[in-house]
Amino acid sequence: MKKFVGAITAIVTPFQKNGEVDVKALRSFVEFQVKGGIDAIVPCGSTGEAVTMNYDEYQLVVKTVVETVRGRIPVIAGAGNNDTQKAIHLSRLAKTAGANALLHVTPYYNKPTPSGLVAHYKAIATAVNMPIILYNVPGRTGLNSTASTTLRVAKEVDHVVGVKEASGNLPQMMEIVQKAPSYFSVLSGDDAFTLPLMVVGGVGCISVVANEVPKEFAQLVYAAGDGDFKKAQKLHYRLLDLMNVNFIETNPIPVKTALSLMGKMEEVFRLPMVAMEEKNKVVLRGILKNLSLM
């Protein structure tokens, strides 16, 4: 039985105008996600600006999400780092805070070999004894975990139970689906690839657009999972402009701006992220209005 499937939101982290974590807004936002029908939630990923958090803030965010969820859905804490020892430390903090699983991006910048990736994930799994989802996002890391490498990690590291695949390479994803162990979840890391990947055997998505439209995105994933591809296709194209505009600038700038326009949180970023360019915000507003989100 696959551990993690469905519509999973990689959530934005709300900050107050003074730059501190907005715990009240975070609790409200998590409740919005749960009531929208999301299957699991990922705090402290790249969408959550986790790389700008200190350890106390990191644990505060994960603990707040866990407390707000109250066991209704799994909490998969982003804990990735390109220093294996720091990745282990973040994983231990997440475990202490009550997370159910971990999301670990492939080490960025230092670009390890396939054997290095296996050793990295083995060290984390040994240290924390929790389910781990590998996150392959070469556009951010400069490293593509090929199908053969991901499959090797899946087979050699007991606690790695899935992959968030954001390579944009559908043949690569299909090879993982085809050859992975039965318990291994292949999840899209790109919203627009959710439906295509599920058609060929993927089991869901760790999503950005679900921040804005948890209910409709969950409906898309449920329809695809049920084999109702006509309904899924309709929802896919309804949300496609929003999926695309979320990356008109670097994530999470557009999605946090959208959530601010929707009244969910303040439009506050931590450097080096800055406010969205006005010309792009005009486009974003138009799409939100078309979807009756503002």
Question: Could you characterize the architecture of this molecule?
Answer:
This protein is an alpha/beta fold. It has one domain: TIM Barrel (Alpha-Beta Barrel), CATH 3.20.20. Helix content is 47%, strand content 12%. It has twelve helices and eight strands. The chain has helices at residues 23-35, 55-69, 84-97, 114-128, 138-141, 147-156, 170-179, 194-199, 214-225, 229-245, 253-261, 278-290; strands at residues 6-10, 40-42, 76-78, 101-105, 132-136, 160-165, 185-188, 204-207. A five-stranded parallel sheet has the order 3-4-5-6-7. Strands 2-1-8 form a three-stranded parallel sheet. Helix 4 (114-128) links the parallel strand 4 (101-105) and strand 5 (132-136). The longest helix is centred in the last third of the chain and has 17 residues, at 229-245. The protein is globular.
- Strand pairing plus helix content: what structural class? alpha/beta
Query: Oligomeric status of the shown chains?
Result: single chain
Shape: globular
Report the biggest beta sheet as strand number plus sense, adding barrel if it closes.
5 strands, parallel
> So, CATH architecture?
Alpha-Beta Barrel
CATH top level label: Alpha Beta
Would you report the number of β strands?
A: 8
Question: Beta-strand level of the residues, as a percent range?
Answer: 5-15%
State the CATH topology.
Answer: TIM Barrel
Describe the structure in brief.
The chain is α/β, with parallel strands linked by helices and 294 residues long.
Produce the secondary structure layout.
Layout (H helix, E strand, L loop, with lengths): L5 E5 L12 H13 L4 E3 L12 H15 L6 E3 L5 H14 L3 E5 L8 H15 L3 E5 L1 H4 L5 H10 L3 E6 L4 H10 L5 E4 L5 H6 L4 E4 L6 H12 L3 H17 L7 H9 L16 H13 L4
Parallel strand pairs: 1-2, 1-8, 3-4, 4-5, 5-6, 6-7
Helix pairs in contact: 1-2, 2-3, 3-4, 4-6, 6-7, 9-10, 11-12
